[in-house]
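Case study.
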Amino acid sequence: MGSYSTSARLGVPSRIHHVAMVVQSIEASLGLYRDMLRLPLETVLDIPADRVRIAFLGVGESKVELVEPTDDTTGVARFLASKGEGFHHVCLEVADLAEELTRLAIDGVELIDSAPRRGAEGPVAFLHPRSCGGVLVELIEAPGGPSWAALKMAPRG
Amino acid sequence: MGSYSTSARLGVPSRIHHVAMVVQSIEASLGLYRDMLRLPLETVLDIPADRVRIAFLGVGESKVELVEPTDDTTGVARFLASKGEGFHHVCLEVADLAEELTRLAIDGVELIDSAPRRGAEGPVAFLHPRSCGGVLVELIEAPGGPSWAALKMAPRG
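After joint prediction, the assembly is written out as follows.
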């Protein structure tokens, strides 16, 4: 329980975990986000399974995520081809992701992922933009939450 | 200087101040953001000068802003008519907005507002999406920064 914030324990999202932008090139986009806006670059990471490369830059308790498709077969690549660079999704941190998904489904929210799955930064699930006013919303479970163990994910130190 | 975070003092954006979504109806959208995602509603505010109504919901050190056009003459209303509901802009907090704008202009970033102006929550300026990978970026000055006094804005207690 030590890593839960008070608000997370009460079932209220505890922070914006990240805001994700689709970009043509992470390298080129760092010119804006790292060099001009001076957000500290934390990670650049290939995710071969998703055929994307991602970067995280820090801003307070949140991050900006840059997502660059590495081939043209994925949803993110089609997004880039059809809409161009821009906002992709916002990710909110919750205390108990499985419980949250159950509750949202009962409330009639359309889920892309009906159960937590392994994400780069923890257990995640996406909600459908049709249920979220056109916004793709991701939920991530706070470190120490029950889905970390269920998915055999080890919080990084 | 008391309200400056360490990072703000060093000229690094200190937090995501808010993420703004354009909505048809704040009342309807509270069904998702307040009732289903359980973000605490902080303010609902008419801004007649901008012909919008806005709501702020809290999440950690950040907010989600909902923006509802109140007539069909504004840029936000045209955005809603052409693209539908969805993400509108992300706002980063900086320590010294005028200095930041000067530096960004020198770096070649296209500014919508070349100087700080009065926003609902403090001195603000927008950067053009053409310079920001398709993302509309707003900057807001942290309470206690120099533009508050220059614009005769009083930080709220």
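Observations recorded in class. Chain A touches chain B at residues 5, 7, 11-16, 19, 21, 23, 29, 32, 35-40, 59-62, 83-87, 90, 92-93, 103-104, 107, 109, 129, 131-135, 137 (CB under 8 Å). The beta strands of chain A are 15-22, 41-47, 52-59, 62-69, 86-94, 117-119, 122-127, 137-141. We will return to this complex in the next lecture.
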